[in-house]
Amino acid sequence: MASKPLDYENINENVKNCAYAVRGELFLRASQLEREGKKIIFTNVGNPHQMGQKPLTFPRQVLALCQAPFLMENAHVGIMFPDDAIARAKHYLAMTSGGVGAYTDSRGLPGIRKEVAQFIEIRDGYPSNPDLIFLTDGATKGIMQTLGTIIRNKNDGIVVPVPQYPLYSATISLSGGTFIPYYLEESANWGLDIDHIRQSILDARQKGITVRAMVIINPGNPTGQCLSYANIKELIEFCYQENLVVLADEVYQQNIYQDERPFISAKKVLMDMGLPYSKDVQLFSFHTVSKGFWGECGQRAGYFEMTNIPPKIVDEIYKVASISLSPNVPGQVLLGLMVNPPKPGDISYAQFISESKGILESMRRRAHVITDGFNSCQNVQCNFTEGAMYSFPQLKLPPKAIEAAKEAGKAPDVFYCLNLLDATGISTVPGSGFGQKEGVFHLRTTILPAEEDISEVMASFKKFNDDFMAKYEA
Ligand SMILES: Cc1ncc(COP(=O)(O)O)c(C=O)c1O
Which domains does the chain have, with CATH numbers? Predict the structure, then answer.
């Protein structure tokens, strides 16, 4: 019989080549165990609400009113919703023609893009042009669209920090380009070594690759490090010398758990550097409502800002965005609220501050408990989670454990994580999903389990780990 028009053999090879560990084997096994009735602690995805984080009240009030504007005609609306939430819902609805159920401009509503530009201006102290800001269904869509615009064929290379968030390797595969790793130095708190990056680029060029762009994830996922001003400057200087587009993934900009290195955007550093950098270096910066103290992953809202991208390219990106018609509109409203939250003097201000501070302070405490917990375990070593939402401990697996993994047909870190899942219900992601140096093993967990549960989760982890290490060291 002739093969089917669509056979596994004849689908796009790029689809087969792309891997996405965060929802890979471990996640599937955890989901199966959950269906069988086992209690699973999902620490594999940075998905705060799934782990019990409560949505912030004010943004959800505004969203509720935007979704159900007829509530505003109800005589009791003033009892159910504060006046500033009602005013804000009216403000956003006035920007739309047809409310949140109607398509918008493919770049997002102009009024919300203006609010994003004002947020960036206040954050960085430099002008921002709303016409160079596109709203997207999560930062992911913007990153995919940008990579899709840059990559022409397999000879185009993108330089990505390793360990890396697998969206990058997966999207580069899907777009048919070449992934060029630069290794972060675990012993230097996941720092960068420009000479290593330069060497990676030289190696790629020798293989005939045209190196086009470099990704900077700050704060880092999965490594949690926060880049210093000097680091960012050095990276920008490097991209200028090497003629690379900078892709600054800044989705964790609110998630900072130390005071020495506050978040500084790549845009600010670039503008501070002055000429020729500020006019020559091409930069895409990404942000989202999924992270920070918002954690609204399911709402799928983000934006990207373009710096030094010529108008003809912006037009092409606009054209491609138009194919999807419009980013989701409730998400755009939420993004507007993120960049323009309640101000001092507003009715909802005190509650907003108390909720958002409460979440961030709790995350900071959890970052400490988790790092300390890992470092108290046999053969486990963990850098402090300076930012983002993850802990990435190194597992010094005994040779017998590596042997046992081989017999089970699993990578050693996958073997460890599967055993951990079966014994404790803790669902993590093996380090191999993010890339790691040969012969070095990690796992990634989020810092998101509820604060009241975290000591118990770490105790359960420690018991499993110490038994596992003792078993294979014997
Ligand atoms: C570094 C990084 N970039 C981008 C994203 C995607 O975020 P979004 O939910 O906005 O698509 C994530 C999600 O975990 C991430 O960790």
Answer: 8-53+353-473 (3.90.1150.10), 95-339 (3.40.640.10)
User: Is residue 56 within 6 Å of ligand 1 at its C-beta?
Assistant: no
What's the whole-model pTM score? Answer: 0.94
Largest Cα–Cα distance in the chain?
Answer: 74
Mutate to test the pocket of ligand 1, among 251, 338, 392 (most ligand atoms within 8 A of CB): 251
Integer Cα distance of 465 and 15 in angstroms: 36
Closest-lying ligand 1 atom to the alpha carbon of residue 143? 4
For 54-75, the pLDDT digits (tens) are 999 999 999 999 999 999 988 8
Is 247 a pocket residue for ligand 1 (Cβ < 6 Å)?
no
Q: Read off the pLDDT of each residue in 382-407 and give the average, rounded to a whole number.
A: 95
Ligand 1: centre distance to CA 56 (Å) = 20
Q: From ligand 1's centre to the CA of 86, what distance in Å?
A: 31
pLDDT digits (tens, 9 = 90+) for 209-242: 999 999 999 999 999 999 999 999 999 999 999 9
Q: Contact at 8 Å (CB) between 391 and 223?
A: no
Cis peptide before 48 (omega within 30 of 0): no
